[in-house]
Write a structure and sequence with these properties.
Blueprint lengths: L2 E4 L5 E2 L2 E5 L10 E6 L9 E2 L1 E2 L9 E5 L3 E2 L7 E2 L4 E11 L2 E12 L1
Parallel strand pairs: 1-11, 8-9
Antiparallel strand pairs: 2-8, 3-7, 4-5, 4-10, 6-7, 10-11
């Protein structure tokens, strides 16, 4: 299930997102990008970080995105009022790279 986060353009905050990846991805840095909802081409990927340990029984791990919010608020992944956005995650595990939509950001 894809999580939905409400983001305000006057602020910039990092988001916790849950990823499902097998095997353990923590040897590599997670990367994140943003696109308008419905647009299948994300922008530039920017490094995030791991928030929790990988759970082998579910393949779940929580990652922390770069800051998301208004460009004027200093956000790394910028959104605008009235927009809905996909947050894309990119994780490399061994020789495999996975790119998936991992969250939705709504900017009222």
């Amino acid at each position: 299930m894809i999580e939905t986060h409400t983001i305000h353009d006057e602020a910039a905050e990092s988001l916790d997102v849950t990823l499902r990846v097998t095997p353990d991805p923590t040897a590599a840095t997670p990367y994140f990008a943003i696109s308008a909802k419905g647009v299948n081409t994300p922008g530039a990927f920017i490094a995030g970080s791991w928030r929790t340990s990988w759970v082998s029984t579910t393949g779940e791990i929580t990652a922390l995105t770069p800051t998301v919010g208004g460009a004027g608020a200093g956000a790394t992944l910028a959104v605008a009022p009235g927009g809905e956005y996909w947050i894309w995650g990119k994780v490399t595990v061994g020789a495999e790279t996975f790119v998936r939509i991992c969250a939705v950001a709504v900017c009222p």
